[in-house]
Predict the 3D structure of the following.
Amino acid sequence: MMERPIEEWNLPNRHLGRRTLIFPSVGSTNTFALSLANDPANHGLAVLAREQTAGRGQHGRKWQAPPGSSVLLSILLFPPPCLRRPSLLTAWAAVSVCETILHICNLQAKIKWPNDVLIHGKKVCGILIEQRPSGLPESPLATVVGIGLNVAQPDQFFIDAGLPEGASLSSISGLALEIEPTAKRLLQELDDEYDRLIQGDAATLEAMWKWRLGLLGKQVGASTAHETHRGRLIDVTLNAVTLLTANGKVEKVAPEKVQHLESLSEPRP
Amino acid sequence: MSPRSEGPKPARKGEQQPAPTSATDDAGKAPGPFDVRTVKSLVALMTQHDLSEIDLRDGHQRLRLRRGNSQKPTVALAVPVPATPLTAASQVTVPPKPESNALPPSKTLLEIKSPTPGTFYSSAKPGEPPFVKVGSKVIAETVVCLIEAMKIFNEIQAEVAGVIVDVAVENQQPVEYGQVLFRVDPAG
């Protein structure tokens, strides 16, 4: 059954969310957005739902949130080749969520590699980015950025759900927050950063991602599928994770190959 | 024919290597004495011992015999043949079966390659059946797997039509850019 939006926003953004469809309930905002990938005019279209009945996390995991408690948002993009790199897309989404949190509740969130957003060590956001060939010659790759940002759940929700490492913006900040203004702010942050990227400025995103990872100068382990590189993290860019090993050797690893990047001197959050 | 031109090597199976009393030279030299009876006996030995290949050299003379095996297509595919890029898929030519009376045309297989480094997922979620398996018919739009890198999940489509004859990687195996994921028989 085709879901019907109850409302449509036309936000004054440059690229994303200029058309945002609001649903009371939808199976999965990512699935719905991907279903619109047959028309290049839908670039930047956003789908926002109060509730998902079949919300998806990474690799088929369920993503559940009480109706009206979270920003459940998906944005459909046909990114140009220069913006298709996984490190760039994942950093862009995570950094935009962090900037939203800063504006909404004045808290500095951290990013746990590659894109978990944490406040005081608790996860407040899930990001699911999916790509598929669109069949459109001029826009061959459809990308959907799905963001589930916990906004209004009380502490008890995470206790009852057996998610002691989860939290919401309200549960941490103590503020009474609403979904729609938060969603609009998130769309604005995503749009601002996307505009910088389209204009060739990836350095701003890179600097914010690097800072919010919070590991520069620390002893870290960077695990790939085959090995763990250990050393002092001397740089993180969209192109390389660079470590200085104990024997003075500089090792660079492509970010797409790094599955975990974590401090060796601090306990996991 | 296969472009392979490495030096002498033992038969792939078993240790029997009949004396190279007669040989053809496929390295461009003048052919030496050719004894049909010897070749026949070698073919009989290959059949008897289920050998897939015999490669013998004596001085400048060389004799190489191969038996095709329709039950084990991957054995033939192990031959490294230059592939023609065809976006995500490419072609591999499998040598014709040498023991056939009338040599069939070369069999062309297509390869589905990974467009990105990442982790290969054969199904949409754990516990679900794989998107495709050996014997599955695919068309260009058929989703054959997911590749995940930095928590970004890429749906990989076949981009070719045919029947999957080989799944070249294991579920959740790390893959590199351009690594072959599947082989497809377009005539299947």
